[in-house]
Amino acid sequence: MQPLRHQSLRRKLILISLITTGLTLLLSNLAFMSLEYYLTRQDNQNKLAVLGQVIANRATAALTFSDTQVLQNNLGTLKADPNVVRGCIFDAEQRLLARYENHPSLHCPMNLQALQVSRDQFFSQLFPIYLDQQPIGTLYIESSRGALLERFNQFVMFSVIILAITVVLAILLANKLQEMVLRPMRELSNTLANIVKNKDYSIRAQKENADELGDLVDLFNGLLRTIEAENQSLKTSEERFRKLTALSPVGIFQIDPNQQLTYVNQRWHDIHMVPENDLSLQSWFDRIHPKDLPQLQKRWNRLMCDQESIAQELRLTRRDGSHTWVHLLASPLHNSNGDLLGFLGAVSDISELKAAQIQMENLAFYDPLTGLANRRLFKNRLEKSVKSVLRSGNSMALMFLDMDQFKRINDTLGHDAGDVLLKEVAARLTATVRENDTVSRIGGDEFTILLTDIHHTSDVLVVAEKILQALARPIRIKGQDIITTVSIGITLTPEDSTDANTLMKNADLAMYRAKEMGRNNFQFFSEDMNHNILEHLAIEKEIKEAISRQQFTLLFQPKVSLMDYSVTGVETLIRWEHPEKGIITPSRFIPVAEETGQILEIGAWVLEQSCRQVSSLIRDGILPATAKVAVNLSAKQFTDPKLVEQISNVLSVSAIPPACLELEITESTLMDDVEGAIATMQQIKKTGVSIAIDDFGTGYSSLAYIKRFPIDVLKVDRSFVMDIPDDSNDMAITAAVIAMAHKLSMDVVAEGVETQAQLDFLRNNHCDEGQGYLFSRPLSLGQLHQFMQETRQRHRQENSYSA
């Protein structure tokens, strides 16, 4: 038989009813039988007592006179009670005088002391006989228990029959009652089974009774309504997600924990040009370009094993054999308990962005005329080469070349001839150096050459002489043989310096010494050219005094919206008011402060004073409430571990809204440590401060990095703006930068706007803001007050005229 817990509820209810009823009846019958036995026994004893008392009273006189016949006659009355088995009368000396015997095995003894009483089957009592309160004898009567036991047995049989009938009735009644109780529960169970089978949460259980089961049905239906609402919400959300993914320009995919593709949208198929039934992850890996596959596999393993999100640009091979650039993002997907459900990813087609990047890099880093590296690319390679020299211990040479009399040739034969000459010079310079050396055109007729892995100075001499010889050969242009010469300045690292800017200055100084020496020669940098180093040391000393004596002051250059010419903010510029030398521009002392570390103290002062003063200007209504103050951060400031704490403290002390502070960071600063820069910028963004990239285009950054930076504003460097509209290359670069920034949801500020033509070009290309002398020079605090007053007055007049 199965244990009770495995039985059905119906059987449990019946069994409980039977046990309860049976125990109740059994205990009741036992109680009644005990009571019946006790009362019958008591009744028999009472009758026996009455009978004995009557006989004892009647035997008093006969016992007094020892009349045995009368005593015997008195005992004869016991025949009236068939249960009496014997009666004996004893005198005062306990001798037998009379007797009555109605049982073959029971006899009256001759004296009272010999009397044996059987208490198992008989009742017995002794009745003393008195005369004048003096005992004169004893009456003994003994009655059989047979009648009592017979009556008791009959009562027991009757009780058993009643108990059996009651149990049968209880079983029948329990069956009927449990059906009434269990039917609602069975209906509830059937309803639940129907819901599970059909997954239809609109089904409801029927409430039959207003009892506990009815309350359970109400709770069950309430739960169903909640589940139905959540299920409908989930279906709606899933449908919304599917529609969004179907309309999304991004390819979306989902992978289960077993690395099986479980979902992809239509855009995913379109990007990969694969049929809709192709959901093989291995097939997807097979389409990845071999050069991109190893790095992706490493990151993919980290995603699967360590659940680390990945982001990578890679090339995919389509079915037609073409390649497309995509940007892959993938992250683990968890439920609310943290259990892994799979992985969700997105693939974006960035082919157009890549093409634009390549075009921009060509425009930004290569000279369109000669195909050589331009100043920006050369500077980047120079900085990298200097770092390599410091690591390897080798030497490197930097040559600065300036063509002699190029302007005369250009003016005489025309610009076309000048372009031909520049191309030929570039070709001859390239032919004289190794493939791993860098030749660049950094200006109109200025070239630089970077010679790496130099073991002896004589190696540099050989190259310099080869250059002079190569350019000494005539160049035929427009039917004329042109002979051009160059002046070459040479500097070495690490012998002369390990700073890229210093090396450029050294080579430039040496080049001018070559011109002074009669042109068409080369000169090495020497200490006698290094007067600027002495100036450097002097400035370093004077900076310390300037900090302690508070000789620094701030100027503010307004930034103007190019849509309505309203002032949107200011850029803070530092000036040094030297008591003897007058105003010293930042270009003279900032590089020194950067190198010595003094820039941290100066930068902290600039940041705090800028926020304090602009906060006051906003409160006084001089600047609009949305005005932003742009503060430049130096490379050392940006890498300072205390920068974010410093920003938070300044915001608190100055009471300037975080949205009104914009920090400008140069492009080259970010590229030194991309991942570290991203982490720092993300911390800055948490303070509510916006970030701008200053002098964009002068560094050597990749769009792959730019779009990862949490940037709000791109500032187009003045070197691109200054030659607009005369230089078509600068115009193309500027337009491309503006378009790219807007595509990446960034605002664009153009620096160095000085002419109406530049302004018109920027407005036509939807540049957001501008700053430069066309709008205003850098202003002191008082001048800024006056400028804002005049600006408001001018706007009011314009509005009144338009009205």
From TrEMBL:
Catalytic activity: 3',3'-c-di-GMP + H2O = 5'-phosphoguanylyl(3'->5')guanosine + H(+)
Residue ranges of coiled coil: none
Matches recorded under InterPro entries: Biofilm_reg_signaling (IPR052155), CHASE8 (IPR033417), EAL_dom (IPR001633), EAL_sf (IPR035919), GGDEF_dom (IPR000160), HAMP_dom (IPR003660), Nucleotide_cyclase (IPR029787), PAC (IPR001610)
Record domain GGDEF: where: 394-527
Gene3D superfamilies registered for this protein in UniProt: 3.30.70.270, 6.10.340.10, EAL domain (3.20.20.450), PAS domain (3.30.450.20)
Keyword Transmembrane annotated: yes
Assigned GO CC terms: membrane
Listed name of the protein: cyclic-guanylate-specific phosphodiesterase
Species of the source: Bacterioplanes sanyensis
Classification of source organism: Bacteria, Pseudomonadati, Pseudomonadota, Gammaproteobacteria, Oceanospirillales
